[in-house]
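Comment thread on ticket #2218

A.B. wrote:
> Attaching the input chain for the structure job we discussed in standup.
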Amino acid sequence: MSLVRASEFGQASGWIAIVLPVWLFTEEFRAAGFGAYRIVVAGLGSGFGVAVGMTLAGLAAPLFPPLVSGAAGAFGLTVVYCVVWFYGLRWLSHRAG
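C.D. wrote:
> Ran it. Output below, let me know if you need it in another format.
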């Protein structure tokens, strides 16, 4: 956007950084097989991840340009979702089976 003079560098949203992790999460969801536990874990991971991501983006917004604050939020969402998915899926599948 800065090359065509539509905006200054760093003013674009950093939330575009979430595209590849969401693609990965979708494929992990499909690969997990059938069962209600994967839906529960995906819902919990999404909820906690969005909460942490929005908090990090909100805290970074007054200090940094939108590109950095959005990327910080995307990073927080990704890390929390990965942790909840990994441990939640193993814990619930162990208890179910």
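A.B. wrote:
> Thanks. Noting for the ticket: The chain has one domain: 14-96.
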